[in-house]
Amino acid sequence: MTARKYVWEDILKTVKKLDPEKLEIVKATLPVVLEHGEAITTRFYERLFENHPELKNVFNLTHQKTGHQPKALANAVYAAAANIEDMSAIMPALERIGQKHRSLQIKPEQYPIVGENLLGAIKEILGEAATPEIIDAWADAYTIIADVFIKMEGILYKTTESAPGGWGGFKDFVIDKKVRESDVITSFYLKPKDGNELPLFIPGQYITIKVDIEQEEFTHLRQYSLSDRPGLDYFRISVKREDALEEGYPKGVVSTDLHELFNEGDTIPITAPAGDFYLDMESRAPVILISGGVGQTPMLSMLNTIIHEQPDRKVYYIHAAMNSTVHAFKEDVKKVSSEHENVKAFTFYQTPTDEDKVSHNFDEEGYITLPALQKILPSNEGNFYFCGPEPFMKAINKALKQWDVPAENIHYEFFGSFGNLDSD
User: Fold this and answer.
1) Which CATH architecture fits 9-162?
2) Does residue 417 surpass a pLDDT of 50?
3) What is the architecture, at CATH level 2, of domain 171-270?
4) Which parts of 107-234 are beta strand (E)?
5) Less Cβ around it within 10 Å: N or C end of the chain?
6) Is the confidence at residue 244, as pLDDT, over 70?
7) Residue 56, Cβ neighbours under 10 Å: how many?
8) How far apart (Å, rounded) are the C-alpha atoms in residues 190 and 268?
9) Which of the listed ranges 55-69, 122-136, 252-266, 408-422 does the model predict with the highest average pLDDT?
10) How far is Cα 301 from Cα 298, in angstroms, rounded to an integer?
11) What is the pTM of this model?
């Protein structure tokens, strides 16, 4: 299976250029927008939901409460405006957003609504400093940026729906099997209710599920990585129950309901697989899969795909968990590594239980560090893929760069718009 390649530069050639005078205004006001970015986007969401409450069916309201979404949008607006003369430099980030928009079923007619409320928020936050000339310049800049997304997502919609087994919108799937993988992770095996074939996907991609929760006014959409290989008669997602209030984060209403209320035979609407983070199946270079917690879900898809389609390709599977009670798929990975000489698996426990220490069922205590990687791996050559909590990914990214791993060999899944693992 090969990766999907899109030539987004062709879209950029068709995009209208910003008037030179307005371009200078946007450039001159970028520092102010950056300074007030989160305040602007926070107010934007307030305005958006006040004027169009139906859009609460699209946005992750948990991310609104934690401030994650306003921060991500602020980063996206700033990066797009800063590169509006030549957006080819940020096309990977734009595609990441476009893929998520397609998965969430964002439509062209929603862009003017977003633009109107975003400009309104800029006027409110900047006050008299937001002159008519400034608002007019930013309005044109937004129109150009929106045009890029609309054209990009149009291609994604078309290719997704026309693919064998593909579909548009949400399609009903039935929970064929529900399996408890650890104290906090449960897998759901999903089969199409209509019995039709499933489309192929690229290991590493995700689906969006739609959940209506009792006593909740709005629909909830959540994206979960597919945790098994393509080509089977089911999609599998493995969901961590987010029920602990950590660092002010509210519990995950969707993950909790999936664990407690959804059972075999129940129906869940989902969109077709999407995502720009996936395994390069054209390469035969060694693969290093590094995960923390539930971040192993796309890695499992990659691992299972490799042993099925590239049984001689070298794989190092390195996983970090708190301890064995929350370590899902341990026996599955152990079985794969014992049956396939090309697969080497390593486990890190941050706080192993007394039983873990007695049974020696892990390889290292503590975190995955650069010295630990250098101890496991024969060299820094190969394709590195990693996923997990943001602090975990920042640490892995920093370690790989310190080891002089080429940037083109570093790949990660970041569930944010313009994720920057180099920031503090």
Assistant:
1) Orthogonal Bundle (1.10)
2) no
3) Beta Barrel (2.40)
4) 171-180, 185-192, 206-211, 220-225
5) C
6) no
7) 18
8) 8
9) 122-136
10) 5
11) 0.91
Fold of domain 287-412: Rossmann fold (3.40.50)
Q: Which of 73-87, 207-221, 366-380 has the highest mean pLDDT?
A: 366-380
Q: Which residues contact 259 (CB under 8 A, 6 or more apart)?
A: 186, 239, 241
Contact indicator for 343, 299 with CB cutoff of 8 Å: no
CA dihedral 370, 376, 379, 384 (to 10 degrees): -70
Cα–Cα–Cα angle for 334, 398, 2, nearest 5°? 55
Structure tokens at 361: 């069922």
Tokens 């630990």 appear where?
372
- Find, among 343, 340, 365, the residue nearest to 354 by Cα: 365
Residue stretches of the annotated binding site: 101, 206, 222-225, 293-298, 414-417
Active centre residues (catalytic): 111, 153
Tokens of 244: 């602990």
Half-sphere exposure in the Cβ direction for 82 (13 Å, CA): 14
pLDDT for 69 equals 66
Cα within 13 Å of Cα(40), Cβ side: 26
Strand partners, 344: 316
Domain map (residue ranges) of the chain: 9-162, 171-270, 287-412
